Input
Amino acid sequence: MKTSIVPAQVTSIEDTIAANLSLTQIILLIIPVFMAALIFAGLPPTMHVKVYKLIVIICCSLPLITLALKVRGQLVLKWIILLAGYRLRPRRYLFSAHSPCCCEKVKPEIQSSLPSATGVAKAVRLPILKPAEQIAVGEYLSNRQIAFYADDMGQLNVVMESK
Output
């Protein structure tokens, strides 16, 4: 006799509690009952039936009852969660496995192109810009059209054109 192992996700069966309803469906159907009781008892005139109370109760109950319906064996709520996850996925991946973002960080020393008196190039620290210089750089960049795009490998590229 041949035996085979069936994965757990194939054998999982949704438990039904009463009248072929799952726990999620029962919760989605009980919430409007409690909301209706709170609306009926809380809004004036208390404990009296009025048309506006019925309209509010129906408007609050219909979305939850709709979420409790089953389409193709799954709740509408689960379909909405699935579609929302699909719609909210990232459209572009800026980083790839070949990018150095996860590698060990090593600070490179910035070398000046001019040799010192001894003939050996010294490391030069770049200056921090003063506010007036930052404004000048901002004005310089504002006269340019800057575009960012990612190539197939996920590398971010910058293109700067004059206006």
About this structure: Strands lie at 70-71, 74-75, 144-150, 156-162. The chain has two domains: 14-87, 100-162. The first strand starts at residue 70 and ends at 71. The helical segments are 8-11, 23-42, 51-67, 76-87, 131-142.
